[in-house]
Specification:
Layout: E1 5-15, E2 18-28, E3 33-37, H1 44-52, E4 57-64, E5 71-74, H2 86-97, H3 101-114, H4 130-142, E6 148-152, H5 160-176, E7 179-184, H6 187-193, E8 196-201, E9 204-209, H7 211-218, H8 225-232
Parallel strand pairs: 3-7, 3-8, 5-6, 6-7
Antiparallel strand pairs: 1-2, 1-4, 8-9
Helix pairs in contact: 7-8
């Protein structure tokens, strides 16, 4: 199958000689949503940071395929500038992406309306709730409509309506052919939306594949993803 991103990680960590993840291989494919699932502290975020090249110590090979274009990274914890408004954050992101002003106006307005944030476009995010800050991160990520999305625990802080809006945008991007790698420990949602899974336990891959393949590995042919995780993850 064609891939947009391939990563082979022998080991990686935050201190020399103390690796947190081992023997991780994965691929992001066009139009597919791969769920990187596991408990808190299992190593999911470390895997994403290794792919992004922001982990201090890593023995890894990461390949963005020719023509795969830019990627968007949506972090677990919102990152923002205290003195820039929501719209100024979008404007700054557009400049980094090389987005034309007309495209910024069109896409920015679409996202503001989608996430019901139009009335706070000129407000500072320091006064936003955690959920509003997370929505700002999502808007920045979707602004340029890249071919690859790398998303870390996106559901934290989102209310049900915002989650529905986010999932709707993800589906639109999948239909367009974008590939998505998303870490989450919200297994019931992951079971509904992901095409396949990489289950991480104690820094290693415990199981991988489609839901049916995960069920087969757990010897639970009709079990939920949560129940399979309970069997396979230490």
């Amino acid at each position: 199958m064609e891939t947009l991103l391939e990563a082979d990680i022998n080991e990686a960590g935050y201190e020399l000689g103390d690796p947190k993840i081992h023997d991780i291989s994965l691929a992001v494919c066009p139009g597919k949503l791969t769920g990187l699932i596991g408990a808190n502290g299992a190593g999911k975020s470390t895997i994403l940071k290794t792919i992004l090249g922001i982990i201090p110590y890593a023995e890894a090979s990461v390949r963005f395929m020719s023509g795969s274009g830019q990627y968007a990274y949506i972090p677990e914890h919102p990152v923002f500038y205290e003195n820039l408004t929501l719209w100024e954050h979008l404007d700054l992101a557009a400049a980094v992406y090389g987005l034309k002003q007309d495209d910024l106006e069109t896409e920015g307005e679409r996202l503001l309306q989608k996430f019901r944030m139009a009335d706070v476009r000129h407000h500072l995010p320091g006064g936003f709730s955690k959920g509003m800050r997370q929505k700002m991160m999502l808007m920045i990520g979707f602004l340029n409509r890249p071919n690859i999305y790398i998303v870390d625990e996106p559901f934290i802080g989102l209310d049900p309506r915002a989650m529905k809006d986010f999932l709707g945008l993800l589906e639109e991007e999948r239909q367009r052919g974008a590939g998505i790698l998303m870490s989450t420990h919200v297994l019931d949602t992951a079971e509904r939306i992901c095409d396949d899974f990489i289950m991480i336990s104690q820094g290693r891959i415990a199981a991988r594949g489609t839901l049916d393949e995960i069920r087969s590995a757990a010897s639970r042919p009709k079990a939920s993803l949560f129940d399979c995780f309970d069997v396979l993850a230490e």
